[in-house]
Structure prediction request, 167 residues.
Amino acid sequence: LGEDTSVMRTTLLPSLLECLERNNNNHGQPTGLFEVARVYCKSKEADALPQEPLHLALGFYGGGDFYDLKGAVEAIMKDAGIYACFTAFSQDKTFHPGRCAQVTDEKGTVLGRLGQLHPQIAEEYGLGQDAFAAEFDFEAMQAAAEFAKKFTPLPKYPALTRDFAFV
Prediction:
């Protein structure tokens, strides 16, 4: 193992950004990637084992903006039956201060963050352009998801768009 992989990761973004960097170096334009994997967090109890939640990370560069990423996240949340709320967030140093949002469900549970990468971080990874990323707690998303489909019967008298009467 190298020095940069000598500890367990607490976020998926560095490995996702390395993949984006590799694609950018091979002139892959535009590029979008995702990853679902475990991260490792220190447990709240001193004697307990670390927590290993499953996370989802998305990222892309070239051919999109913040609203494209937000639209992709909204589509994922809609398919999972989650009503997502987006609020501005500026405490995460990974993202551009004015172009970051925190995503919560209707109960207020934080599901993740999305935004434009800070220009210094994009430069460190050699992207040389605007890059966008998001990371979500996949297990929190699964807990908030509503997969039960509701049946709506067809109307007894369906609406008509045209009605012709010939005599």
Q: What stands out?
A: Strands lie at 31-38, 54-61, 85-88, 95-104, 110-117, 131-137. The two ends are 86 Å apart (CA to CA). The mean pLDDT is 87.
